[in-house]
């Protein structure tokens, strides 16, 4: 886990507000992944980004969710008009290149979103 | 769609016992990964398997890549209290793109 920094670690939002989760990948890593974990579930892939490009967003809900990984700065996962069902742990992972080998993907400690 | 089924869902064992858990998939995998997640933390990679039949160890942990390429097993010998956590199997997401598919996890609880 060392090196992939996520913030905030915990976030409380009222229904209808926006949530922004940030992820700074490990130094030298240009590939970022976002996963969501609901209680008692495994992690579910949401989106895969490289610098300035969304490569695969097949796991992203069609509405209210967006992600970016700008040339400078952290990757951002943005959830607009949050609903109670968005309450979950959101994990970011990074790799220096394609992560198919698995052993080069490192996870952050997660951001826990609670919608009240 | 692609599914990973882990069993058992949870295990209550005594310290010192050996642990065995498995993961089966609905499709063939070319890579199997085992992660451990502790409360409030992200998953940490324990063992990666890349070849059918492969048996790989990491300390007291041993994992095997099933011959059919549709299953994998994780064994922990002589469990200790710090082994407590959720163990997830994972494999490459279908469609050839990057990303992982995870099982729902096996909760390991150790009674002193």
Short description:
Helices cover 0% and strands 48% of the residues of chain A. By secondary structure, chain A is an all-beta fold. By secondary structure, chain B is mainly β.
Fold and architecture overview:
The complex is a heterodimer of chains A (116) and B (112). Chain A has 116 residues and is an all-beta fold. Helix content of chain A is 0%, strand content 48%. The mean pLDDT of chain A is 91. With 112 residues, chain B is mainly beta. Chain B contains no helices and 11 strands. The mean pLDDT of chain B is 92. Classes of the chains: A mainly beta (116), B mainly beta (112).
The dominant shape of chain A is globular
Return the structural class of chain B: mainly beta
The biggest sheet of chain B amounts to: 6 strands, mixed
Number of strands of chain B: 11
Helix content of chain A: under 10%
Number of contiguous helices of chain B: 0
Residue runs with pLDDT of under 50 for 5 or more positions of chain A: none
The share of residues in extended strands of chain B comes to over 45%
Largest interface: A-B, 30 and 25 residues
Calculate Rg of chain B over CA atoms.
13 Å
Based on Cα principal axes, name the global outline of chain B. globular
Fraction in beta strands of chain A: over 45%
Instruction: Determine the number of helices of chain A (DSSP H or I, runs of at least 4 residues).
Output: 0
Q: Rounded to an integer, what's the Rg of chain A over CA atoms?
A: 13 Å
Low-confidence stretches of chain B: none
Topology:
The complex is a heterodimer of chains A (about 120) and B (about 110).
Chain A: E1 5-7, E2 10-13, E3 19-24, E4 31-37, E5 43-50, E6 53-56, E7 65-68, E8 75-79, E9 88-95, E10 106-107, E11 111-115
Parallel strand pairs in A: 2-11
Antiparallel strand pairs in A: 1-3, 3-8, 4-5, 4-9, 5-6, 7-8, 9-10, 9-11
Chain B: E1 4-7, E2 10-14, E3 19-25, E4 32-37, E5 44-49, E6 55-58, E7 61-65, E8 71-76, E9 85-92, E10 100-102, E11 106-111
Parallel strand pairs in B: 2-11
Antiparallel strand pairs in B: 1-3, 3-8, 4-5, 4-9, 6-7, 7-8, 9-10, 9-11
């Amino acid at each position: 886990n060392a090196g992939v920094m996520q913030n905030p670690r915990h976030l409380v939002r009222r229904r209808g507000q926006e949530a922004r989760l940030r992820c700074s990948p490990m130094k030298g890593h240009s590939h970022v992944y976002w996963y969501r974990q609901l209680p008692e579930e495994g992690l579910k892939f949401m989106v895969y980004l490289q610098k300035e490009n969304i490569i695969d967003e097949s796991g992203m809900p069609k509405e209210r969710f967006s992600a970016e990984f700008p040339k400078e700065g952290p990757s951002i996962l943005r959830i607009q008009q949050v609903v109670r069902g968005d309450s979950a742990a959101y994990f970011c992972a990074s790799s220096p290149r394609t992560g198919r080998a698995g052993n080069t993907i490192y996870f952050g400690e997660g951001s826990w979103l609670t919608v009240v | 769609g692609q599914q990973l089924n882990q069993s058992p869902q949870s295990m209550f064992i005594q310290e010192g016992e050996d642990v065995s858990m498995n993961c089966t998939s609905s499709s063939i995998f070319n890579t199997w990964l085992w992660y451990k997640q502790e409360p409030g933390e992200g998953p940490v990679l324990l063992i990666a398997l890349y070849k059918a039949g492969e048996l790989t160890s990491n300390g007291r942990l041993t994992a095997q890549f099933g011959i059919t390429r549709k299953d994998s097993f994780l064994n922990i010998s002589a469990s200790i209290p710090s082994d407590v956590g959720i163990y997830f199997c994972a494999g490459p997401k279908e469609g050839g793109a990057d990303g992982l598919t995870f099982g729902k996890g096996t909760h390991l609880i150790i009674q002193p």
